[in-house]
Amino acid sequence: MHSSLTRLGRFRWERVLQRPYNLLILCTGNSARSIMAEALFNTFGSGRLTAYSAGSHPTGRVNPFAIEQVRALGYPVENLRSKSWDEFALPDAPQMDFVVTVCDNAAGEVCPLWPGQPVTAHWGFPDPAAVEGTDDEKRAAFAGTLRQIRNLVQLFLSLPLETLDRLTIQSRMRELGKQLLKKPTTSRSPE
Questions:
Q1: Of the options 3.40.50.2300, 3.40.250.10, 3.20.20.80, 3.40.30.10, the CATH number for the domain spanning 19-179
Q2: Backbone phi, psi, residue 172, to 5°
Q3: Domain residues of the chain, as ranges?
Q4: What stretches of 18-134 show up as alpha helix (H) in DSSP?
Q5: CA-to-CA distance for 86 and 11, rounded, in angstroms?
Protein backbone atom coordinates (compact mmCIF):
# COMPACT_ATOMS: atom_id res chain seq x y z
CA MET A 1 0.00 0.00 0.00
CA HIS A 2 2.87 2.39 0.78
CA SER A 3 4.22 2.12 -2.77
CA SER A 4 0.72 2.89 -4.10
CA LEU A 5 0.59 6.07 -2.02
CA THR A 6 4.09 7.02 -3.14
CA ARG A 7 3.11 6.52 -6.78
CA LEU A 8 -0.06 8.56 -6.23
CA GLY A 9 1.96 11.37 -4.63
CA ARG A 10 4.53 11.28 -7.42
CA PHE A 11 1.77 11.25 -10.03
CA ARG A 12 0.11 14.28 -8.44
CA TRP A 13 3.44 16.16 -8.31
CA GLU A 14 4.26 15.23 -11.90
CA ARG A 15 0.89 16.61 -12.97
CA VAL A 16 1.72 19.87 -11.20
CA LEU A 17 5.03 20.00 -13.03
CA GLN A 18 3.31 19.76 -16.41
CA ARG A 19 2.19 23.35 -16.04
CA PRO A 20 4.17 26.39 -14.99
CA TYR A 21 4.14 27.12 -11.28
CA ASN A 22 1.82 29.93 -10.17
CA LEU A 23 3.23 32.52 -7.78
CA LEU A 24 1.29 35.29 -6.04
CA ILE A 25 3.21 38.27 -4.67
CA LEU A 26 1.37 40.25 -2.00
CA CYS A 27 1.79 43.74 -0.63
CA THR A 28 -0.62 46.12 1.02
CA GLY A 29 -1.13 48.61 -1.83
CA ASN A 30 -0.07 46.52 -4.84
CA SER A 31 1.42 49.61 -6.44
CA ALA A 32 5.22 49.21 -6.31
CA ARG A 33 7.17 46.25 -4.80
CA SER A 34 4.67 43.54 -5.68
CA ILE A 35 4.23 44.95 -9.19
CA MET A 36 8.00 45.00 -9.79
CA ALA A 37 8.32 41.46 -8.38
CA GLU A 38 5.55 40.23 -10.67
CA ALA A 39 7.36 41.68 -13.69
CA LEU A 40 10.74 40.26 -12.62
CA PHE A 41 9.38 36.77 -11.99
CA ASN A 42 7.53 36.77 -15.32
CA THR A 43 10.60 38.07 -17.15
CA PHE A 44 13.21 35.73 -15.65
CA GLY A 45 10.91 32.77 -14.97
CA SER A 46 9.17 32.80 -18.34
CA GLY A 47 7.84 29.34 -19.14
CA ARG A 48 8.74 28.01 -15.70
CA LEU A 49 6.30 30.06 -13.66
CA THR A 50 3.55 32.62 -13.97
CA ALA A 51 3.56 35.42 -11.42
CA TYR A 52 0.67 37.54 -10.26
CA SER A 53 0.50 40.37 -7.74
CA ALA A 54 -2.20 41.74 -5.49
CA GLY A 55 -2.76 43.79 -2.36
CA SER A 56 -4.78 43.61 0.82
CA HIS A 57 -5.79 47.27 0.35
CA PRO A 58 -4.90 48.09 -3.27
CA THR A 59 -4.30 51.74 -4.09
CA GLY A 60 -6.08 51.43 -7.41
CA ARG A 61 -3.09 52.66 -9.40
CA VAL A 62 0.42 51.48 -10.11
CA ASN A 63 3.16 53.87 -9.01
CA PRO A 64 4.63 55.64 -12.09
CA PHE A 65 8.19 54.98 -10.86
CA ALA A 66 7.40 51.24 -10.67
CA ILE A 67 6.05 51.40 -14.22
CA GLU A 68 9.26 53.14 -15.30
CA GLN A 69 11.43 50.38 -13.75
CA VAL A 70 9.31 47.58 -15.22
CA ARG A 71 9.26 49.19 -18.68
CA ALA A 72 13.09 49.36 -18.57
CA LEU A 73 13.09 45.55 -18.19
CA GLY A 74 11.22 45.32 -21.47
CA TYR A 75 8.15 44.00 -19.65
CA PRO A 76 4.77 45.05 -21.09
CA VAL A 77 3.14 47.49 -18.68
CA GLU A 78 -0.25 47.91 -20.34
CA ASN A 79 -1.96 45.21 -18.26
CA LEU A 80 -0.35 46.03 -14.91
CA ARG A 81 -2.94 47.15 -12.38
CA SER A 82 -3.36 47.46 -8.64
CA LYS A 83 -5.80 44.75 -7.58
CA SER A 84 -7.18 43.07 -4.49
CA TRP A 85 -5.95 39.72 -3.27
CA ASP A 86 -9.63 38.70 -3.11
CA GLU A 87 -9.45 38.09 -6.89
CA PHE A 88 -7.11 35.17 -6.24
CA ALA A 89 -9.31 33.55 -3.60
CA LEU A 90 -12.20 33.10 -6.06
CA PRO A 91 -13.07 29.60 -7.30
CA ASP A 92 -12.05 30.38 -10.91
CA ALA A 93 -8.72 31.99 -9.95
CA PRO A 94 -5.46 30.24 -10.82
CA GLN A 95 -4.36 27.84 -8.09
CA MET A 96 -1.19 29.15 -6.49
CA ASP A 97 1.87 27.03 -5.77
CA PHE A 98 3.68 29.86 -3.95
CA VAL A 99 2.55 32.98 -2.10
CA VAL A 100 5.13 35.58 -1.07
CA THR A 101 4.56 38.78 0.91
CA VAL A 102 6.99 41.59 0.10
CA CYS A 103 5.99 44.15 2.71
CA ASP A 104 5.81 43.84 6.47
CA ASN A 105 2.22 45.11 6.67
CA ALA A 106 0.86 42.39 4.36
CA ALA A 107 2.92 39.75 6.17
CA GLY A 108 1.16 40.60 9.41
CA GLU A 109 -2.37 40.55 7.98
CA VAL A 110 -4.73 37.61 7.94
CA CYS A 111 -4.65 36.34 4.35
CA PRO A 112 -7.50 34.60 2.58
CA LEU A 113 -7.37 30.82 2.45
CA TRP A 114 -5.60 29.96 -0.77
CA PRO A 115 -6.85 26.81 -2.51
CA GLY A 116 -4.23 24.07 -2.78
CA GLN A 117 -2.19 25.09 0.27
CA PRO A 118 0.60 27.00 -1.50
CA VAL A 119 4.08 27.31 -0.04
CA THR A 120 4.35 30.70 1.69
CA ALA A 121 7.20 33.01 2.63
CA HIS A 122 7.88 36.61 3.57
CA TRP A 123 10.53 38.61 1.75
CA GLY A 124 10.48 42.14 3.16
CA PHE A 125 11.79 44.88 0.91
CA PRO A 126 12.07 48.61 1.67
CA ASP A 127 9.13 50.60 0.33
CA PRO A 128 10.43 52.90 -2.41
CA ALA A 129 7.03 54.63 -2.58
CA ALA A 130 7.60 55.94 0.97
CA VAL A 131 10.70 57.86 -0.09
CA GLU A 132 10.24 61.61 -0.14
CA GLY A 133 12.45 63.87 -2.18
CA THR A 134 13.18 64.75 -5.76
CA ASP A 135 12.14 62.55 -8.65
CA ASP A 136 15.78 61.46 -8.99
CA GLU A 137 15.85 60.38 -5.34
CA LYS A 138 12.58 58.48 -5.76
CA ARG A 139 13.84 56.90 -8.98
CA ALA A 140 17.01 55.78 -7.18
CA ALA A 141 14.95 54.22 -4.38
CA PHE A 142 12.86 52.28 -6.91
CA ALA A 143 15.98 51.14 -8.76
CA GLY A 144 17.55 49.95 -5.48
CA THR A 145 14.46 47.98 -4.46
CA LEU A 146 14.20 46.50 -7.95
CA ARG A 147 17.83 45.30 -7.68
CA GLN A 148 17.11 43.64 -4.34
CA ILE A 149 14.00 41.95 -5.69
CA ARG A 150 15.86 40.81 -8.82
CA ASN A 151 18.59 39.21 -6.69
CA LEU A 152 16.04 37.24 -4.69
CA VAL A 153 14.08 36.27 -7.82
CA GLN A 154 17.24 34.90 -9.40
CA LEU A 155 18.12 32.95 -6.23
CA PHE A 156 14.61 31.51 -6.07
CA LEU A 157 14.67 30.54 -9.75
CA SER A 158 18.01 28.77 -9.22
CA LEU A 159 16.36 26.34 -6.78
CA PRO A 160 15.75 22.88 -8.27
CA LEU A 161 12.01 23.11 -7.49
CA GLU A 162 11.18 20.04 -9.55
CA THR A 163 13.31 17.80 -7.31
CA LEU A 164 12.54 19.30 -3.89
CA ASP A 165 9.68 18.35 -1.61
CA ARG A 166 7.22 20.95 -0.31
CA LEU A 167 8.84 21.32 3.14
CA THR A 168 12.31 21.82 1.67
CA ILE A 169 10.99 24.44 -0.75
CA GLN A 170 9.25 26.23 2.13
CA SER A 171 12.43 26.16 4.19
CA ARG A 172 14.57 27.47 1.31
CA MET A 173 12.08 30.24 0.51
CA ARG A 174 12.08 31.38 4.13
CA GLU A 175 15.89 31.24 4.26
CA LEU A 176 15.99 33.56 1.25
CA GLY A 177 13.82 36.04 3.15
CA LYS A 178 16.09 35.83 6.19
CA GLN A 179 19.17 36.43 4.02
CA LEU A 180 17.49 39.55 2.71
CA LEU A 181 17.03 40.86 6.24
CA LYS A 182 20.77 40.48 6.91
CA LYS A 183 21.78 42.58 3.91
CA PRO A 184 21.98 46.37 4.19
CA THR A 185 18.93 48.08 2.72
CA THR A 186 18.58 51.37 0.96
CA SER A 187 17.52 54.31 3.02
CA ARG A 188 13.77 54.76 3.42
CA SER A 189 14.07 58.53 3.21
CA PRO A 190 16.60 60.93 1.76
CA GLU A 191 19.53 61.88 3.93
A1: 3.40.50.2300
A2: -65, -40
A3: 19-179
A4: 33-44, 64-72, 104-108
A5: 31
140 is catalytic: no
The active-site residue out of 73, 111, 155, 159 is 111
pLDDT digits (tens, 9 = 90+) for 72-103: 999 999 989 999 999 998 888 999 999 999 98
**How far apart are the C-alpha atoms of 131 and 137, rounded to whole Å?**
8
User: Catalytic: which of 25, 40, 102, 103?
Assistant: 103
pLDDT in tens, 7-42: 444 434 454 556 799 999 999 999 999 999 999 999
Give bridge partners of residue 53 from the DSSP assignment. Answer: 25
- Gap between the Cα atoms of 133 and 125, Å rounded: 19
DSSP 8-state secondary structure symbol assigned to residue 116: T
